Amino acid sequence: MLSLGYKNPLPRTLTLHPSFSFPPFSVHLLIPMSMNALAIYAIAAGGIFAGLFLIQTLSILTNWTNLFSVLASRHLTLPFVVHRNRFWGLWSRASVLLHTSYVAVNVFLVLFRIESFTGAGHRAGELALVNLIFPLSATHLSFLADLLGITWHTCRRIHRAAGWMATALLAFHIIVAVQAQHFNFRLANISQGAASLGVLALFSIPWFRRWSYEIFLRGHQILAGLFVYGTWRHLPTKSSSPKLYLWIALGLLGLTSCLQLVTLLYQNGLFVGRGAPRAIISFTIRKSKENILTTTAAQIRILLPWPVKVEAGQYINLWIPLASLWSWTQTHPFTVTSWSQGRQDTMELLIQPHRGLSVELIRHASVAAESSVSFLALFTGPHGTSEDVSQYKSALLITSGFRVAAAIPYLKKMIYGYNTCTLQIRRLHLVWQVKSIDMTTAAQGLLNNLLEDDIIDEGYILNISIYVENGLAHNKTPFGKHERVCLYQGVPDYRSIISLEASGDQIERLPNIRDEQGRMLVMVSTADDLRDHIQEIVRGYLHQGVKLSEMEYQPNAG
């Protein structure tokens, strides 16, 4: 036998010791593992089906969005409950419903489970501080509106409603304190905060804002600061909740102010030492029959340290500290008339001499009548939202006076979209109402540029109708080879214009090809009364796919 040197070769069979046994094995040890695998599989499969169902639901809701929008516009946002007057603006059904709900919620919170009249007064005081968190959270509404993704008008309505609600709650708080004989007029108590908030409410009346926007803005901010100081001194030392509300408001104010400062320094090139922007200002001057020179407008071209993206309809707040002795205290919003698909190296503005900073700039026209002047300038923005124009086949833009500046960038964008086949737009109609023919001189270059852009493949989708109230000898005067510009004497018949455009008959179509009418966009940048009139007209055409849009920034009339 061959031996490999192993004295005890391995046995052929395995014999276990009687005392040895395998550890007990139970089937339930495999159950968690199998159940986890089944649960993961079930969750994954369910997630896939839920995702597909959600996508299909969103697709269906998207198709119904237009219907919901029409119903909301027809029954909530466009019907008027309170018409515009000298004391307050237009109130739609939606405005009344939202404000009534807001008041009802605050009244409910004041009266819910109160044990005494004094307790209701204390709760009203705390609730006033809660309502003031939003108005105190930013120094400029434009920046706050951008952070929240809402329009400036919506942000101002919220700001105003919260401010008036806080004033009413504070008034109730003071009345309760007087009735309870716990009220005194020491500066350390409520008098300073209450007085400043009361003056702040009175100072917010539109007449003060129209009288001087800059004085109104600075006074508004100073009074708000006095209110915070007076309220802080009035609150008891041991009170935690009321002071917490003030801390939240001041914390939001500090955060938004820091973000705004960083954005300001970055956009104006001050972080990297590229130098501040320069404002090149030229003027449009009209000579009267008596050879008297009158400045009708100013064009500002801002040279930027680096390119900035500006959407159609956006505006900037401009600061030119060296324009005059007091111009360093003034900033003013202006619509950006230039537009580009990409970023812009320059921004162009059209300014009407009205009041404040615009008047200070016009005073330099006598020095640079035939040339231009240059100033150091800083700006914030661009601010505001831009209307989505990608789903409309026709657009009617209605403007009056210098408000045409808000319509120019939208026209540029839609003409570019037609030329590059990136938009559905097939027809553009600008209706511009002016008081005299002299007002058209300032925007003549901008309109000519639009007509020059609208020449690819002889599309000629842009038509301009200028209605002059006084000064024309003929009722209709066409201009150009294709008569795309017409001057009319008198005031437009907006009902007939909107009816004709909504019919779709003005859109050029290929012969023997059936084409859908498509949706129509009506954009408005006019005076308040005219805007209300157009809203009433458009309401009757909502079922035909017509949508009304008010441009983000409405420059002052002049």
Task: Note down, in words, how this protein is organized.
The protein has helices at residues 30-77, 93-111, 117-131, 141-148, 152-179, 190-203, 206-211, 213-234, 241-267, 357-362, 404-419, 444-453, 494-503, 528-539, and strands spanning 80-82, 91-92, 278-287, 293-308, 315-319, 332-335, 344-351, 372-376, 378-383, 394-400, 427-434, 462-468, 476-479, 485-489, 520-525, 546-550. The chain is an alpha/beta fold and 558 residues long. It folds into 3 domains: 113-267; 278-383, Elongation Factor Tu (Ef-tu), domain 3; 394-550, Nucleotide-binding domain of ferredoxin-NADP reductase (FNR) module (Rossmann fold, 3-Layer(aba) Sandwich). The strands form 4 sheets. The chain has a 7-stranded mixed β-sheet with strand order 13-14-12-11-10-15-16, with helices on both faces. Strands 7-4-3-8 form a 4-stranded antiparallel β-sheet. Strands 6-5-9 form a 3-stranded antiparallel β-sheet. Strand 15, helix 14 (528-539) and strand 16 (546-550) form a beta-alpha-beta unit. It starts with 29 loop residues before the first helix and ends in an 8-residue tail after the last strand. The model is unreliable at 1-12 and 183-190 (pLDDT under 50). InterPro entries: FAD-bd_8 (IPR013112), FAD-bd_FR_type (IPR017927), Fe3_Rdtase_TM_dom (IPR013130), Ferric/Cupric_Reductase (IPR051410), FNR_nucleotide-bd (IPR039261), Riboflavin_synthase-like_b-brl (IPR017938). Keywords: Cell membrane, Ion transport, Membrane, Transmembrane, Transmembrane helix, Transport. It catalyses: 2 a Fe(II)-siderophore + NADP(+) + H(+) = 2 a Fe(III)-siderophore + NADPH.
